[in-house]
């Protein structure tokens, strides 16, 4: 969902060249988004999102300027992965690993995991993705209010 929202907000912006998403675990690799995710996106006008889940790769740390963690566990996992990459290739440029929720107005906020709850969890997660994305674009990239 985060990728779809971010792509929607940055469509046509030449400063954003590559947006992707990946998990720290391989349990959903190759799967399409949850139907409730797609329904929530469609309810908010995002209807062209096509994605297959993948796992974070070592090369991602050099490919992306920013790697946004959805919660503290993901942040810790990504920081450990990045440390291993740096040890094996110290000369390679490395993207910044940061907590996405730090850009939502509440420092340290984690993305709720809606998958085991009711459908309103997907609406809450969508609201978070919009808020975090707008905050990130404003704070780090100076793109101004993204309303």
Q: How is this structure best described in words?
A:
- The active site is at residue 113.
- Residues 1-139 form the Phosphotyrosine protein phosphatase I domain.
- It comes from Lasallia pustulata.
- This is Low molecular weight phosphotyrosine phosphatase.
- The chain has helices at 2-10, 35-43, 60-63, 72-88, 120-139; strands at 66-69, 96-99.
- It is mainly alpha-helical.
- It has one domain (2-139): 3-Layer(aba) Sandwich (Rossmann fold), CATH 3.40.50.2300.
- α1 (2-10) crosses α5 (120-139).
- The longest helix has 20 residues, at 120-139.
- It starts with a helix and ends in an 8-residue tail after the last helix.
- The mean pLDDT is 89.
Biggest sheet, spatial arrangement of strands: 1-2
> How many helix segments?
5
Distance between termini?
A: 19 Å
Query: Rg from C-alpha positions?
Result: 15 Å
GO molecular function, one term: non-membrane spanning protein tyrosine phosphatase activity
GO cellular component, one term: cytoplasm
Domain Phosphotyrosine protein phosphatase I: 1-139
Protein name: Low molecular weight phosphotyrosine phosphatase
Comma- or semicolon-separated keywords:
single chain; 147 residues; mainly alpha; Rossmann fold; two-stranded parallel ribbon; 5 helices; 2 strands; 40% helix; globular; protein phosphatase; non-membrane spanning protein tyrosine phosphatase activity; Ptyr_pPase_sf; cytoplasm
Q: Could you give a quick summary of the protein structure above?
A:
Belongs to the low molecular weight phosphotyrosine protein phosphatase family. Helices cover 40% and strands 5% of the residues.
């Amino acid at each position: 969902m985060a990728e779809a929202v971010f792509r929607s907000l940055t469509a046509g912006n030449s400063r954003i060249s590559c947006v992707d998403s990946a998990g720290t675990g391989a349990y959903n690799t190759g799967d399409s988004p949850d139907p409730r995710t797609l329904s929530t996106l469609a309810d908010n006008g995002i209807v062209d999102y096509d994605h297959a889940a993948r796992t974070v790769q070592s090369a991602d740390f050099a490919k992306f300027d920013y790697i946004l963690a959805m919660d503290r566990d993901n942040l810790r996992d990504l920081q450990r992965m990045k440390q291993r990459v740096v040890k094996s290739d110290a000369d390679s440029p490395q993207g910044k690993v940061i907590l996405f929720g730090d850009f939502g107005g509440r420092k340290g906020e984690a993305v709720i995991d809606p998958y085991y709850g009711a459908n309103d969890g997907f609406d809450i997660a969508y609201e978070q993705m919009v808020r975090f994305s707008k905050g990130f674009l404003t704070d780090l990239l100076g793109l101004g209010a993204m309303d």
